[in-house]
């Protein structure tokens, strides 16, 4: 039987396990001191801004849009080359989603395409650091500023990366992170919002904390006892646990090593595939230091499905990231048409994500390289 090599997986050490079991032996399981410590560590990693942890990257997006006040009548401009949550979490709040095409080489949102679709109703420009490569925020921010919008960096793929010397988390007005097991570090399930504006961070915090207000200076009901708390706006319970935060704190100690190994794997793939006819390797801008989460190779000549199926048959657990968001029936049934973003659709038709995770061995990488090269030769 062929052993399946996954396209992504978590790396859990004995230290990670000990960190979690220490919480089980302590007094806090849910939201306690480990959550605070984890949020402080994420803040330090991402430029010193307020970080609010949560249960998933999707929850982080929902919180971020709520923190920015997104609602009916607003427009959110975003990329179709992402997981659906980047768009759906704004749509849930009542916003109209406007898709801007991506750059041909990076599959990142194209600032020129954003410029063409923004209006005075644009509330947020939401970029995605696809595969771990930060988007061009120095081009996006002036567009947002001109129309009175805010920028959002969906950095589910890119925590630990840098853009022009600045860390991911310091690139946009608000940043969202994901700590799913296949991501650059994990809390099991989890995410975070990083906000430059403390008021946006506080609003995101209250939204993820059932809307609870605990500041006596803001109470509308006075004269109650020290137990009192009240809700001014509806929120949800998106709180992370101490169990998850302990794992995250332990994983953060290894983030530099994770990034180093992902960079090594990317370099090996790039070198091997650079001269292979029928393949196109991912682009990297000179001013970016990515934290590679995916290795998105492009299979040319209309052979993507054939190669994908044959790779899986050979035990190589590849994936495709992603179907253009507006192809999903929830958007297509609302009137979004195929052909809207030609570069994104072309990229989707060619993309395969090869195995990419820190515990991938050199022999595993060689197996992937040899198998794919033979399939396209």
TrEMBL record:
Record keywords, A-Z: Aminotransferase, Pyridoxal phosphate, Transferase
Sites bearing N6-(pyridoxal phosphate)lysine, chain numbering: 183
CDD domains: AHBA_syn
GO biological process: polysaccharide biosynthetic process
GO molecular function: pyridoxal phosphate binding; transaminase activity
SUPFAM superfamilies named in the record: PLP-dependent transferases
PANTHER family: DTDP-4-AMINO-4,6-DIDEOXYGALACTOSE TRANSAMINASE, TRANSAMINASE
Protein family (similarity comment): Belongs to the DegT/DnrJ/EryC1 family.
UniProt-annotated catalytic positions: 183 (proton acceptor)
Cofactor(s) this protein cannot do without: pyridoxal 5'-phosphate
EC category: transferase
Source organism, top-level taxon: Bacteria
EC number: 2.6.1.92
Name of the protein this chain belongs to: UDP-4-amino-4, 6-dideoxy-N-acetyl-beta-L-altrosamine transaminase
A Pfam family of this chain: DegT_DnrJ_EryC1
Gene: pseC
């Amino acid at each position: 039987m062929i052993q399946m090599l996954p396209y992504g997986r978590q790396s859990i050490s004995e230290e990670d396990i000990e960190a979690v079991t220490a919480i089980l032996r302590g007094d806090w399981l849910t939201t306690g001191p480990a959550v605070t410590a984890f949020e402080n560590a994420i803040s330090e990693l991402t430029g010193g801004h307020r970080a609010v942890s949560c249960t998933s990257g999707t929850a982080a997006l929902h919180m971020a849009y709520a923190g920015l006040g997104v609602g009916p009548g607003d427009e959110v401009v975003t990329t179709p080359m992402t997981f659906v949550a980047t768009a759906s979490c704004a749509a849930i709040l009542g916003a109209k989603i406007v898709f801007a095409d991506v750059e041909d080489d990076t599959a990142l949102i194209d600032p020129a395409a954003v410029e063409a679709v923004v209006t005075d109703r644009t509330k947020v420009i939401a970029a995605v650091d696809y595969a771990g490569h930060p988007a061009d925020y120095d081009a996006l921010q002036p567009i947002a500023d001109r129309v009175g919008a805010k920028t959002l960096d969906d950095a589910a793929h890119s925590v630990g990366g840098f853009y022009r010397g600045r860390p991911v988390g310091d690139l946009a007005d608000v940043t969202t992170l994901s700590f799913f097991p296949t991501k650059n570090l994990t809390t099991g399930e989890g995410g975070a919002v990083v906000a430059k504006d403390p008021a946006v961070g506080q609003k995101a915090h209250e939204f993820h904390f059932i809307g609870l207000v605990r500041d006596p200076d803001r109470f509308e009901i006075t004269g109650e006892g020290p137990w009192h708390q009240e809700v001014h706006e509806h929120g949800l319970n998106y709180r992370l646990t101490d169990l998850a935060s302990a794992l995250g704190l332990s994983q953060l100690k290894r983030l530099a090593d994770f990034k180093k190994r992902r960079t090594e794997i990317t370099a090996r793939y790039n070198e091997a595939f650079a001269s292979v006819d029928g393949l196109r390797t991912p682009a990297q801008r000179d001013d970016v230091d990515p934290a590679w989460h995916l290795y998105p190779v492009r299979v040319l000549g209309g052979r993507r499905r054939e190669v994908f199926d044959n790779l899986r048959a050979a035990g190589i657990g590849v994936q495709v990231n992603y179907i253009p968001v507006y192809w999903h029936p929830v958007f297509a049934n609302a009137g979004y048409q195929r052909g809207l973003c030609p570069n994104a659709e072309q990229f989707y038709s060619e993309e395969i994500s090869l195995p990419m995770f820190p515990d991938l061995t050199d022999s595993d990488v060689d197996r992937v390289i040899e198998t794919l090269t033979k399939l396209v030769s």
